[in-house]
Every structure is written in structure tokens, then in C-alpha cells.
Design brief:
The chain is α+β, with helices and mostly antiparallel strands. The protein contains eight helices and five strands; from the N terminus they run αββααββαααβαα. Helices cover 54% and strands 17% of the residues. A hairpin with a 2-residue loop joins strand 1 and strand 2.
Length: 203
């Protein structure tokens, strides 16, 4: 939601202004892999998709930054042309998947007004929200966007926890076990959360 995007942005802004030396830790994500260089996200999907959209908005203000571009898309080694986006969604609702791909398109128009159907589209709402916030951050608050982007790229971290297996099923089983164990140490997961994870796994 917008309020969660706002909280993320405020946390990053606060860390940028007050805690540059220590940086900022955004938690962990649980991944699984059975194919080289491809990872399935078991826990942390919302955080990852939100961060990718945030980086995409930052790219609109620093489009010559190769490191930033390379965090959003896989690039051709010689031409720097975009091959494909790094994070893909295989969620069940096709229009959501198409919408996520649309906002990650290099030529997405941020200034375009949202139409009636877009006003229910969380990807479009959230990427527009970040764009508005970054504009305020630069033009109203007078912050140096390149300094902020360097902070995000070099001093903000996520801890990836990933499992491997001889096949996708074995790798997922291990990752789901980690996911359940980690979440049961803190606030216990709702039964529906465990059911949803296992449903994704079976699908």
C-alpha cells in the first residue's frame, strides 16, 4: 500500500540523513534455486518488488548510472542494452504481472495521469507515489539525488538466505522450512500464511 511505501521511503531518508556510516538493513529474503543464476523468492516478494520499483524511479533521475541500471535489468556486456528485467513475477493474476512489467519498462511515463482502472493498480499507484516523493526530495527539500542513490546502492542491504537442491521441489522444501522456522521464532504466522506458502509451492 502507499502507507507501506511511505514508511520504506521515510526509513531510507532517515538513514541517509542520520546514519550514513552504518548504513541501513532492510531485513532478509528467503530464496531457492535449482537453476544457475535464477532464484525463486519464498519470503520477501513484496519487499523485493517494491524496492525494484523504487530503484526504477531513482533511475529516472540518474539514467547514466550503469550500476543502478544493472540492478533493475540484465544488460548486454558490450552494448549496455537491456536484455530483460531482473525481477519477474509469476503470480496468478495475469494483469498484475503485465502491470509490473509495464512500470519496469525503461520508457514508462511517470507524469501520465492514471486512468480509472489504473487507480486500482498497486504497481502503478506505488511507482507514481515514489516518483512524486523523489521529486519533492530533490526539488523542495534540496537533496543531492546522486549522493542519495549512492547511499542506496552501497550502504543499504538485504540479507539473502537461499537454498539449493538437486531439483526445484527439493530446493523449495528447504526454503519453506527456513521460512516457517524464521517466522515461528517471532510473531507466529497465521495459518493462512503457511497455507498460502504451501499453495504457491504446490502450484
Amino acid at each position: 500500500t502507499e502507507s507501506e511505501c511511505d514508511k520504506l521511503f521515510e526509513d531510507l531518508k532517515t538513514a541517509f540523513h542520520t546514519n550514513k556510516i552504518e548504513g541501513c538493513f532492510l531485513g532478509n529474503i528467503v530464496l531457492t534455486t535449482s537453476v544457475r543464476d535464477e532464484f525463486e523468492v519464498i519470503d520477501g516478494q513484496q519487499r523485493l518488488t517494491t524496492l525494484i520499483m523504487f530503484l526504477k524511479v531513482l533511475y529516472a533521475f540518474d539514467s547514466t548510472n550503469r550500476k543502478l541500471k544493472n540492478t533493475i535489468w540484465l544488460l548486454d556486456d558490450r552494448t549496455d542494452e537491456i536484455i530483460e528485467q531482473r525481477v519477474k513475477t509469476n503470480i496468478f493474476i495475469e494483469k498484475d504481472s503485465l502491470s509490473f512489467n509495464e512500470v519496469l519498462n525503461e520508457n514508462y511515463e511517470y507524469e501520465k495521469s492514471l486512468n480509472k482502472s489504473d487507480k486500482r493498480d498497486k504497481f502503478k499507484i506505488n511507482i507514481q507515489f515514489f516518483y512524486k516523493k523523489i521529486k519533492e526530495f530533490i526539488y523542495q527539500d534540496g537533496n543531492d539525488i546522486k549522493d542519495f542513490i549512492d547511499f542506496i546502492l552501497y550502504d543499504v542491504s538485504l540479507l539473502p538466505i537461499f537454498t539449493e537442491g538437486e531439483n526445484t521441489t527439493k530446493a523449495r522444501e528447504k526454503a519453506l522450512k527456513i521460512f516457517e522456522t524464521m517466522n515461528n521464532r517471532g510473531i507466529p504466522l497465521d495459518d493462512t500464511d503457511i497455507f498460502k506458502s504451501n499453495l504457491y509451492y504446490m502450484a
